[in-house]
Amino acid sequence: MHKIKKSSHNWLAYDAPHNAIAQNISNFVGVVADLGCGKSPYKPDIEKYASQYIGVDWENSLHDQSNVNVFSNLNEEIKLPDNSADTALVMHVMEHLSEPDNFLAEANRILKDDGFILIQVPFNWHLHEEPHDYFRYTPYGLEHLLKKANFDYIETKTEGGIFTVLTLKFNYASRKILRGPLRILGIPIWFINQHLARWLDNKIKYSNEFVAITATARKRAKLF
User: Fold this and answer.
1) Exposed / middle / buried, residue 185 (Cβ in 10 Å: 0-12, 13-18, 19+)
2) Does the CA dihedral 188-126-142-109 come out positive or negative?
3) Domain 11-161+208-219 grouped into CATH 3.40.50.150
4) Contact assessment for residue 121 and residue 95, using Cβ atoms and an 8 Å cutoff
5) For residues 42 and 21, what is the distance between their CA atoms, to the nearest angstrom?
6) Helix and strand tally (H, E) in the chain?
7) Residue 83: how many other CB atoms lie within 10 Å
């Protein structure tokens, strides 16, 4: 897996997607559709397992689009054929979609029977990419939406804990205060407090405070 740069104020925020990919990488086989791919940070990792990687994003994305293969508004019909993908990846995308029910129905449509989907969404996180920041999901909300969209074998997992949440909030705020040459003062603080937060979250569990949620599921196979 690609390395996380640990000199930044927010490297701990990347633990959640990095861990989700690493724990599920063996499911990335066949044709993988990265829905809302952005800069496609996990493309090199996925291509080690998949036969084909398809980056899908909308043409007005704020991110680098050099890895986008298919331009498609994910609130509408996804421009991929029925039953064309073995795996769908949806990393920190659904909070930006105004029509999540339609999106999951479309993700189900493009997946083959028993196709695998990996979703991650933020939970305790600031507004971002405004005004296209619509929802914060709970594990129960994600499970409900996936069931409605005809997915089975649904599992959800929370990522990060209260110490990660508090540390990242402090680091984002302090980065705004420490401008210009003063920012160098924050580097050792950010480095230490993120390592400490990770350690504390492993030792002390608060089940209702976390950074993100990961959900996995499979498309319900047709009986006939």
Assistant:
1) exposed
2) negative
3) yes
4) yes
5) 8
6) 6, 7
7) 13
Q: Return the domain boundaries, the chain.
A: 11-161+208-219
Helices 162-177 + 186-203 axis angle, to 10: 170
Give the contacts of 124 (CB within 8 A, at least 6 positions apart).
165, 209, 210, 211
Contact 214, 119 (CB under 8 A): yes
Q: Looking at residue 3, what DSSP letter applies?
A: P
- Type of residue numbered 71: F
pLDDT at res. 224? 57
Q: Helices in the chain by DSSP H: which ranges?
A: 15-24, 43-46, 100-110, 139-148, 162-177, 186-203
Residue reference for tokens 């980056």: 55
Residue 89's pLDDT is: 99
Residue with tokens 């740069």: 5
Reference 192, options 19, 15, 7; nearest CA is 7
Could you tell me the mean pLDDT of each successive run of 10 residues in the chain, 224 residues long? 76 94 95 96 95 94 87 97 98 98 98 98 95 97 98 96 97 93 92 97 90 97 70
Q: What pLDDT score does 64 carry?
A: 80
Give dist(CA 154, CA 54) in Å, integer: 24
Q: Are 124 and 218 in contact (CB under 8 A)?
A: no
